[in-house]
Specification:
Blueprint (H helix, E strand, L loop, with lengths): L1 H23 L13 H9 L19 H11 L13 H9 L10 E2 L2 E2 L8 H12 L7 H7 L11 H9 L19 H16 L3 H4 L17 H4 L3 E3 L2 E3 L9 E5 L2 H4 L5 H8 L5 E7 L9 H17 L3 E7 L10 H14 L6 E4 L10 H17 L7 E3 L2 H4 L2 H6 L7 E8 L5 H12 L4 E7 L11 H14 L3 E6 L26 H7 L11
Parallel strand pairs: 5-6, 5-12, 6-7, 7-8, 8-9, 9-10, 10-11, 11-12
Antiparallel strand pairs: 1-2, 3-4
Helix pairs in contact: 2-8, 3-4, 3-5, 5-7, 5-8, 6-7, 12-13, 14-15
Bound molecules: ligand IDC.
């Protein structure tokens, strides 16, 4: 009885609150009209972008979850996705991931489930999603904006672009002390204000910024193919990789898997097998961590040198890849890298085949200016002292995707190229746009690793997405290596499990991914000499 009474009193009070709220022109009983976020909530609600909670309240001081944030962002772009399987927001989350609003490791999808998406989203990730979805082409001045944020030094490098552009656009303002608190959550009220500012800004964009259109050095690049005997020493002219004669050249081929695990697929026969399908480059993925070079330097170094010699025998270019991965910051082992590359560059000083890739994928809490650039400068000078003109490939934070940071602050020197890595099941148009902008700013790009799978090496395969990517690279004469030449039971592997490494291969030995990739070594546009 007492319970029932309390229920009725509660309901009547609730209704009264709603009536008062309606009389004041406010949408939710727990949103006061004159509050700092009241107008934003009202505007968003009127536009149909907010629905509030099941009990009719808005809960402004509750931290917004990742799922809620993504769904509202999607609505702001004018899309609404119907319920997918599993979590109520799964369709929206998958869409957002495929659009590249966040990376696969930022909101994880595990065994068919979005995990942790009901947890509060961090401010840095929220701002990244907001900027990618609503204001992707916002320009900013690094020095000006970073100085406005008092806790900038605590920001992870992968969020620089989002946070700095959001600051430049007036979307984020910081607290009284100018701090952004990148890893804290944000309340629903704060989120609502961010959405409203982003929408306002978007509505007022000049048409040129709303649709930047393509702006690349060349989108119709004729390239030559062929091996080292035909092309000789490579060189970079403008943004383009060229052969010794100065003609644009494109390299296409496979990357090995880790030498410590799949070294048996790295020999003269396997490299020859890719050459037989038209490949002219082979990448030697020498993991440093994960039981690789740092744990057994002599064995792995011998294997890498053997691989280079096998590539040379087959007239192939060879990329010697210092494959940092779990050891995310290249500075962690810069001395070991200097010793290794000094020896390699000395040994192969006269060999035009070798391309040096000095850090596969910087990741985690690394920055371009503070870690990767100084590392690259040290390695470039070590290699240059011994091999004055070889091509050197340089990675960037966020698994070699932050080439915009390198484009804004490149390294001095000749014949330097910047790697860009993608996985067709995870990465898409926004990153192709990023490559175009980096190239327009003068950066020369080499895709030293890409996969037909998702970024974790499995899932898919995503042949249609891969085709779009390869056509894109082909139009621009951008070189690539595919991950990976091994028989591991994962979709990115080119060989079926159990394939013998010591004989010729036929189509039957290739996986779906392998068949697709091998058929693209010779591009339709290459002029075969
Ligand atoms: C993956 C391999 C997988 C291995 C894992 C950890 O495919 O078999 O267990 O590494 O070593 C990269 C890395 C590359 C990854 C690949 C796929 O450069 O080492 O290989 N990937 O996850 N960057 C993005 C994706």
């Amino acid at each position: 009885m007492e319970k029932l009474l309390r229920y009725w009193v509660g309901s009547i009070l609730g209704v009264l609150l709603l009536i008062t709220a309606a009389a004041q022109g406010v949408t939710f009983p727990d949103v006061a009209a004159g509050s700092w976020y009241g107008a934003a909530v009202e505007e968003m609600t009127q536009k149909g972008l907010l629905t509030g909670c099941d009990d009719g309240t808005f809960q402004p001081m509750r931290e917004i979850s990742a799922a809620e944030f993504v769904v509202i962002t999607l609505r702001c772009t004018g899309r609404e996705l119907t319920l997918g399987e599993g979590h109520w927001a799964s369709a929206a989350l998958s869409y957002a991931r495929d659009e590249g609003w966040f990376d696969w490791d930022e909101l994880s999808f595990d065994r068919g489930c979005w995990t942790a998406c009901d947890e509060p989203i961090s401010r840095q990730l929220a701002v990244k999603i907001l900027m990618k979805a609503l204001l992707p082409n916002t320009k900013y001045d690094f020095n000006v904006e970073s100085q406005k944020i008092s806790d900038f030094s605590s920001l992870n490098g992968r969020y620089y672009e989002a946070v700095l552009s959001a600051s430049a656009a007036g979307i984020i303002k910081g607290d009284e002390a100018g701090a952004f608190h990148p890893e804290r959550g944000l309340t629903r009220a704060e989120a609502c204000v961010l959405f409203q500012r982003a929408l306002d800004r978007r509505e007022n964009l000049p048409p040129s910024q709303a649709d930047p259109g393509p702006k690349t050095p060349s989108q119709n690049m004729e390239t030559v193919s062929g091996g080292v005997s035909e092309n000789g020493w490579l060189q970079v002219k403008g943004t383009q990789l060229c052969n010794e004669a100065g003609e644009p050249v494109a390299l296409h081929g496979m990357s090995s898997h880790g030498l410590q695990w799949y070294g048996h697929f790295v020999n003269s026969q396997t490299i020859q097998n890719t050459a037989a399908y038209g490949a002219n480059v082979f990448r030697i993925a020498m993991y440093t961590g994960e039981g690789g070079y740092l744990s057994q330097p002599d064995v792995i170094k011998e294997k890498a040198f053997e691989a280079i010699d096998a590539a040379v025998q087959n007239d192939m270019y060879a990329i010697l890849d210092w494959h940092i991965l779990s050891d995310g910051n290249p500075m962690n082992h810069v001395t070991e890298a200097e010793i290794f590359f000094a020896e390699a560059a000395e040994r192969y000083a006269e060999t035009p085949n070798i391309i040096y890739e000095i850090c596969n994928e910087p990741n985690g809490n690394v920055t371009w200016a503070g870690d990767v650039k100084p590392y690259a400068q040290r390695l470039v000078s070590v290699i240059r002292a011994r091999s004055p003109k070889s091509i050197i490939l340089i990675g960037s934070p966020t698994w070699s995707q932050d080439i915009h940071l390198a484009a804004a602050d490149p390294i001095e020197g000749e014949n330097l190229m910047y790697t860009f890595h993608f996985y067709a099941g995870t990465h898409g148009q926004d990153l192709r746009n990023r490559i175009d902008s980096a190239r327009a700013a003068g950066l020369s790009v080499f895709v030293s690793e890409w996969g037909t799978s998702r970024a974790d090496g499995s899932g898919g395969v995503f042949l249609e997405e891969s085709r779009v990517w390869l056509d894109y690279l082909e139009e621009r004469g951008i070189s690539w290596c595919n991950w990976s030449l091994c028989d591991k039971d994962e979709t990115s592997a080119a060989l079926k499990p159990g394939t013998a490494p010591d004989r010729d291969w036929t189509e039957k030995d290739l996986t779906v991914s392998g068949q697709f990739v091998f058929s693209r070594f010779i591009s339709s546009k290459d002029e075969v000499k």
